[in-house]
């Protein structure tokens, strides 16, 4: 079993409040691992520790076998290049055109010609189901689902080994959400990248994940496959599943 992420007894304290309380998990190469839980459960806090934006109060975070808390800034930057991050709101630059957003990593370094940058941008856009017609548009001219796809294209522009999706279906209608789910699965097949997904969308999590981890107030309640969760008798797991399914039914348009 080739592990790309190993987290052991991760703890984070901010302003005297313990945000993460001894979280431990691993992620295998090529799998889709989804972290679920309600608002404030610590999901995004974990991803901030994974990419080194937050230094843990205690615990170990290993990426590709390296403890990121012991790395110097140069080595940490090199490691981050292997990680693509899809932000919750896409976080596109309003003043840049779509192609410029996609290749921003290279554009910022100014070492490549525009022709080559546009070629890379179009290649990544096609991987997420978009084409040349959106290249010169601004983010304000795109739908929410299209902005999300552009954000994913930007995340894969550097051909990362790990892609972190922070609430990829947040703010999208159920139909567009399922399109994003299929895109995440498709990208795993096309790129081979490992995916860590943060989500409160239970239908999405059950649709795409090899394994899931449920958090409650900074602690791990359960980890396992979809079948493990469906068989669980833990009261919190049962309640979370039932409330998630009811929410999906309520939000799905009637025919």
TrEMBL record:
Name the InterPro entries for this protein.
Answer: AAA+_ATPase, ABC_transporter-like_ATP-bd, ABC_transporter-like_CS, P-loop_NTPase
Under what name is this protein listed? ABC transporter related protein
Q: Provide the species name.
A: Thermocrinis albus (strain DSM 14484 / JCM 11386 / HI 11/12)
Provide the alphabetized UniProt keywords. ATP-binding, Nucleotide-binding, Transport
Molecular function (GO) terms listed? ATP binding; ATP hydrolysis activity
Give the matching Gene3D superfamilies: P-loop containing nucleotide triphosphate hydrolases
Classification via PANTHER family: INTERMEMBRANE PHOSPHOLIPID TRANSPORT SYSTEM ATP-BINDING PROTEIN MLAF, PROTEIN TRIGALACTOSYLDIACYLGLYCEROL 3, CHLOROPLASTIC
Q: Which domain of life is it from?
A: Bacteria
Q: Which SUPFAM superfamilies match?
A: P-loop containing nucleoside triphosphate hydrolases (SSF52540)
Q: Which residue numbers delimit the ABC transporter domain?
A: 5-242
In Pfam terms, one family for this protein is ABC_tran
